[in-house]
């Protein structure tokens, strides 16, 4: 009897222990397996895609693009720059702002603002533009000390509305490089595998993991995909002096008078499709404030921000399958073919839409004027 009593107790303890373990398993593991992640938080991995950009990198790119501007001069010169402090000061290349005192900058959401050149170097290819319209905005994080090392992964950002890609990825393929491109002397340069075009000159080079600015994209080697970037820590003291005390007179660059560093700028159709794509990039990132700012004032009069935001309450993600631009007089009509992941009665469903957006300039800024959409039937999806 005693032996059977002991066996009975042991069996009961095993059952009880197993039950407790099962409860913890259900509470801890099963919800994780059953949960449906919103794609705003976790981008989907497409089948057959070999190199998906990690979520943290996507966030770095998206947030950084807002603080990268296109710089335009009256002579047609176009370059890039980036906000580095809360005074509205934009760092760029000296060759971009040479021989001028005033420029226009265009932000990622197509707002055009005037700026004044407050500093430029004759020796180092660095300049600073003060843009009152950007004062008070949070700048890009700057790595003020230390540098990059060989094989560090980097992101080279360029002018948002130029034809060149906004972002190129690469790595540090060389350090301590020295070269001369009249009238500038470049030393201690990063050699990078991310291509740099003329329109990307002056844009930031970011550490892919932290999003910190580690360099200023400045030059490329002929037509090869080898670029060079000035370490930001080397020139930051000079740049900060200009911000504290702007130069009273700017140096001249007679040797650059006949040179226009300008890529072909985007056509109206290209800018219109860019704006629609940027609109949906903002939606997918959950940045409804930026998305709302891209629509026209007349559209904003018809829909409040709260109603605009609530219209996406059941939307998990929107994938742009195709954009077709049709210039019509003073506007461009962009037809967007979309795949949306939505929750309907508690279930996740994939739906196809066709949305038509007239896009044109409003107060010198490209805006999405309105939008009309329809859900596509199965037959229409096949035709698309």
What class, by secondary structure content? alpha+beta
Characterize the overall form: globular
CATH topology of the largest domain: Thrombin, subunit H
Total DSSP helices: 10
Distance between the termini: 80 Å
Walk me through the structure:
Mean pLDDT is 79; it is low at 1-51 and 260-265. The protein is of the alpha+beta class. The protein is 26% helix and 34% strand. Strand 4 and strand 5 (112-120) form a beta hairpin. It starts with a helix and ends with a helix. The chain contains ten helices and 17 strands. The radius of gyration is 26 Å and the shape is globular. It has a six-stranded antiparallel barrel. It has helices spanning 2-28, 30-34, 55-65, 94-97, 232-244, 268-284, 288-293, 297-302, 305-310, 378-383; strands at residues 68-72, 78-83, 89-92, 102-106, 112-120, 127-130, 153-157, 167-181, 184-192, 204-207, 213-220, 227-231, 315-328, 331-344, 347-362, 365-368, 372-375. The chain folds into two domains: 50-264, Beta Barrel (Thrombin, subunit H); 268-383, Nuclear Transport Factor 2, Chain: A, CATH 3.10.450.
Keywords:
6-stranded antiparallel β-barrel, alpha+beta, Thrombin, subunit H, Nuclear Transport Factor 2, Chain: A, 2 domains, 34% strand, 384 residues
Short description:
The chain has 384 residues and is an alpha+beta fold.
């Amino acid at each position: 009897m005693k032996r059977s009593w002991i066996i009975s107790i042991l069996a009961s303890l095993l059952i009880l222990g197993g039950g407790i373990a099962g409860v913890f398993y259900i509470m801890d593991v099963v919800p994780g397996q059953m949960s449906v992640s919103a794609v705003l938080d976790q981008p989907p991995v497409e089948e057959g895609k070999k190199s998906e950009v990690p979520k943290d990198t996507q966030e770095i790119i998206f947030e950084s693009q807002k603080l990268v501007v296109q710089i335009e001069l009256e002579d047609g010169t176009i370059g890039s720059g980036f906000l580095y402090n809360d005074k509205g000061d934009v760092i760029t290349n000296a060759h971009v702002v040479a021989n001028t005192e005033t420029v226009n900058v265009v932000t990622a959401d197509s707002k055009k603002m005037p700026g004044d050149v407050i500093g430029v170097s004759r020796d180092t290819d660095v300049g600073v533009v003060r843009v009152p319209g950007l004062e008070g905005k949070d700048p890009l994080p700057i790595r003020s000390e230390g540098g990059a090392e060989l094989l560090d992964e980097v992101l080279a950002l360029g002018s948002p509305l130029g034809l060149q890609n906004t972002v190129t990825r690469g790595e540090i393929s060389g350090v301590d490089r020295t070269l001369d491109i009249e009238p500038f002397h470049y030393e201690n340069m990063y050699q990078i595998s991310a291509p740099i075009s003329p329109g990307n000159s002056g844009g930031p080079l970011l550490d892919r993991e932290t999003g910190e600015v580690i360099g200023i994209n400045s030059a490329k080697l002929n037509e090869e995909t080898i670029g060079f970037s000035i370490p930001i820590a080397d020139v930051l003291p000079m740049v900060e002096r200009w911000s504290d005390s702007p130069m009273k007179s700017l140096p001249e660059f007679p040797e650059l008078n006949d040179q226009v560093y300008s890529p072909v700028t985007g056509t109206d159709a290209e800018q219109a499709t860019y704006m629609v794509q940027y609109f949906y990039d903002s939606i997918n990132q959950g940045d409804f404030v930026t998305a709302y700012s891209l629509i026209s004032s007349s559209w904003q009069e018809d829909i409040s921000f709260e109603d605009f935001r609530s219209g996406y309450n059941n939307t998990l993600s929107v994938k742009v399958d195709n954009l077709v631009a049709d210039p019509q007089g003073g506007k461009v009509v962009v037809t967007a073919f979309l795949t949306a992941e939505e929750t309907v009665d508690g279930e996740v469903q994939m739906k196809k839409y066709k949305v038509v957006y007239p896009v044109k300039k409003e107060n010198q800024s490209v805006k999405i004027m309105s939008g009309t959409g329809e859900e596509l039937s199965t037959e229409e999806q096949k035709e698309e």
